[in-house]
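PROTOCOL LOG
Step 1. Enter all chains and additional molecules of the complex.
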Amino acid sequence: MGKKILLEHINVPGIETYDVYRKQGGYTAVEKALKTMTPDEVVEEVKKSGVRGRGGAGFPMGMKWSFLAKPEGVPRYLVCNADESEPGTFKDHYLMKNLPHVLIEGMIISSYALGANKSFIYVRGELMYVVRILEKAIAEAKAAGFLGKNILGTGYDLELVVQPGGGAYICGEETALLESLEGKRGNPRNKPPFPAVKGLYQSPTVVNNVESIATTSWIINNGGEAYAAIGIGRSAGTKLISASGHIKKPGVYEIELGVPVEEFIYSDEWCGGIRDGHHLKAVVAGGSSVPILPANLILKLANGDPRLMTYESLSDGGFQTGTMLGSGGFIVFDETSCIVRNTWNFARFYHHESCGQCSPCREGTGWMERVLHRIEYGHGNQHDIDLLVDVAKKIEGNTICPLGDAAAWPVASAIRHFRDEFEWHITNPSEATQPGAVFKGDMALV
Amino acid sequence: MENTQPQLFKVTIDGIEVEVEPGTTILQAARKIGGDMAPPAMCYYQPLKGSGGKCRACLVRVAAGSAKDPRPMPKLVASCITPVQDGMVVENSTNEQVLSTRKAIVEFLLINHPLDCPVCDQAGECDLQNFAFNHGMATTRYEEKRRTFDKQDIGPYIQLHMTRCILCYRCVFTADQITQKRVHGVLGRGDAAEIGTYIEKAIDNDFSGNVIDVCPVGALTDKTFRFKNRVWFTKPVDAHRDCPTCSGNVTLWYRGEDVIRVTARKNEWNEVTEFICNTCRFDKKSTSDWVIEGPTKVSRSSVISVNKARRDAIIPDFQKKLAAATYTDVHEERDTSQLGIQQLPPERFAPVLPHANDPEP
Amino acid sequence: MTETQNTVEFTPERLTKAQEIIARYPEGRQKSALLPLLHLAQEQWGWLSPEVMDYVARMLDIQAIEVYEVATFYTMFHLDPVGKHVIEYCRTGPCCLMGGEEVYDYLKQKLGIQAGETTPDQKFTLKEVECLAACGMGPVFQIREQYYMHLTKERVDEIIEELSK
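Step 2. Run joint prediction.
Step 3. Record the structure below.
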C-alpha cells in the first residue's frame, strides 16, 4: 500500500530545483510525449488511466479532456486550478511548494495533449511565495528548453503564466476562476456554456486541479494501464490526503486509493492515531463541504465492512450514512470538539465566501450562520434546528454553482448525526456556553 | 434544395404545447404562451444582454430534456437562461417542488429586504411585491438582524437606497450597455455586496435615468418623483416628442392635470421597450412638451389600473346584479311584523353612482 | 502614505514588472493583469487608495469602477491604511481545532487591538481571514508572504518581539 507517484522524490534534497528533479528522471515524460506521441495518444493514455479530478468533483480527467471543443483558428487554454481554499485541504500547497517541477512537467504534457500554447496556473493569492517558487521553476524549465518556442525541436510552443488570485474561495469553482483570470470579480458563470466550449476569453478551456495535472507525467512514463492497476476499481491511482485535526501526525499523505479509513487514521504510516488520551468522535473526510460522519459511520459501512478511502466506499450509504472523498481534506475530531461550534465556524466560512450573485446562497448562507451563532452562544430555540435543515435544503441544488451545496451539506449532516448536541445547546444554554464545554451525552466514540 | 425555413422546436410547458425558434429560452417560450404560464423573473431582463440566472425565481423542472434524450434534468433549471430543445417537457406551476422552491426564493429575497411597502415609492409597481404576493408565504421565519444601508444620492436625479436592493445586476448591465462610461457597480461580496460608486460620484450621462426603470424594487428611485404620489393615484398616458437624443417615446404619469413623472414605456413583463434620455425623463414635465397618444395599456391585475375608469363604464349593472344576488327578504330572517318595514325589491335599487375616488368622466 | 493623484506612480522596477505582466496576456485581454497589478500596487503603497486604483485603471485602460468592483471582492486587498505588519490569522475550523482561538485571543490581548484594528504606533494590523491552506500546520497566520505555522502563545511572543525591533 506504499506506492508513491507524486511524492516519490519528496525527500530528495534540492528536488525543488530543475537540476535535481531532472537527475531523478524529471521531464522524461515530456520528452516521451512530445517526441513519440501525438496529442490524441496522450489523451488516450490519460483516459486509460482512469484518473479522476482531484479537486473535489472526481470527474474522469480524460473524459473532461475529450469534451474540449476544437474549432479551427481559435486558441485553446489549459488552466490549472491551484486556488486551494477548501478548509482542511492543503495538499496542492504542499505539492507546489516542494515539488514545483512535478506540476510544471504535468502542465507541459497536458497542454500538449489539449493543443494549448498558453496555459495558466491560477494560484490563490495568499500563496504568493509559492507563485514565486513556480515562476522560478518555469524559468528553469524554459532555460532547459522545456518551455518556450519549439520545445525540444518538436515545433510545439508553450508559455506558462502563473496568476495570483486575490483572496476568494469561490475562485476554486472553475468558471469563477476563469472570470477572476480575466480580471473580474469571481462570480461563477451560468452553465451552459461549459468551459470546454466557452471558457477563458470565450475560448475552449480545460480547468484541472494541481494534483490531477501532476499525475500525467507518471501516466505517460508508465502507461495509463499501470496507473489504472493501482487502487480499486473506478478509484484508480493514488490520492493526496491532507490530514488535520486531532491526530498525532497531521500532514499530507499520498495513499493508494483503497486504504481502509481505520488504517489511515491509526497506522503510524499515516495519521498515527488520535492524540494521546483521546478518542475519535467524528471525521470530515473530504474537505469542509462534505458531510461530517460520526466515528462509527466513518470506520464501517452499514453492512459492517470496513470503509475504504475510495470515492465509492466513502459515499456508500448516500448522505444518510456516507460522505464523499471530495478534495481529500481529512479533518479528525476527538471528543473535546464541539460539533455545534464547528458547524457554526464552517457556516461562517461559507457565508464569508459566498460571491453574493444568486439569492439562495447569498441570503441562505448568512441566515444559517446567524442562527448557528445564536445556538452556539446560548440563544437558540427548539425550532431553529428544523429551520436550519429546511434552509439548507432550500439552498441545495438551487444555486448557480456548487458553493450552495457546499454550504448546506455540513449544516445538514451535523444536525443529521449530532442532533442531540444541538438540542443540548438549546436546552442548556448556561452550561453549553461555558468555555470549553462540550456535549457529553450518548455518543459512539472510538 | 435544402429547407431554409428555420425548423421550430415543440415545447410543452405545464401541458400546453408551443412552437418556438431554436435558441429560445424556456422563459420566453412560456411567455409566448402568455399569462400565468410565464415563470416570475426578478433579475432577467430581456433587453439587457447577459442578465438572468441570478435570482433563481424562475427555476422550473425539466421533466424531459428533449425528444431525442427524454431524461429529466437532475436539478431545477433557471428558465430565463436555459434554451429549449425540441420535445422538451417543462413543469412550471404544476410542479410542487418548483412552487415550494419559489416560496423559498421569496423568503430568501425578503430576509434582508425591508417589509415597508407602505412607505416605499416602488409599491404598486414593484416586481418583488408582486413576486411575494403571488408566490410567497404570508409570514417569515427570519428572526435575525437585517442588513441596512444609508440612502445615497447618486447624482441630482437618482437616489439609491441599498437596503432595498436585491442585487439583480440590471442597473449594472444597463450602464454597461447603454451608456459610454459606467461609474457604478457591485462592490463587496456575499450579502455584504452593494451597488455603489465606491467614491462619491454622480452618475451623470444622458441615459442614467434608465437605471430607475429597470430596478425591480425601490432601490433606485426618481428623485423628482419621490414621495410625490402613489402610482395607483396616477394615470399613465403614452406620449412622444421629437427628441434629438432618444426615441422620445415615453409614458407620462398624470395626477390631475400635472405630469408628475416620465418613464420609458414598458411591455407586459415590465421591461422597458425603448430606453429614454434624461431630458425626456426629468426635464419635460408639461403636457405641452408632448404629443399625447392615449392611455397606457395597464394590466387589469395591476393596482395601477385601479380607479382608472368609472365603474359604471366597465361594469354597468354590477351593483344591481350584486344586490340581486345577495338580496334576502328580511321577513325570512326575523319577525318584522311589528316594525312596519317596507322593503324595496332589488330592482328598485338606485343606479350606480360615481364613487369619490373615480376619475373625472 | 497617501499620495495625491499626480504623484501616484510605480517605482521604475515595478513599472517594468507591470509592463511585463500586462504583456503576458493575449491582445485585448490586458484586464487579466488587474489582480497581479493590484498586488504589485499593494506591495508598494501598503494599501489601495482610490488614487492608486485609478492609476491601475488608467494603466489597463479600463473604467475605475471595474477596479473598485474587483478590489472590494477579494479579501487580500486593503482598502484602508494598515500598519507596517498586517497579521492575517486563520479563523477556520481546522486551525481552531488546533487551539487557534486561544492563540488569537492571546495575540489580540498582547497587541491590545481587535481584528480589523491597527495598533496606535501603526506597527501591527490584525485581520481575520479564512482558511490559508495550511490546516495540518495550524494554528497559522500570515504576514505579507510569510506563513507562520504551529503557533503557540510562546511563538506569538517571539514573532511579535522580532517584528517590533
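Step 4. Note key features.
Chain A touches chain C through 57 residues (CB under 8 Å).
Chain A has a mean pLDDT of 96.
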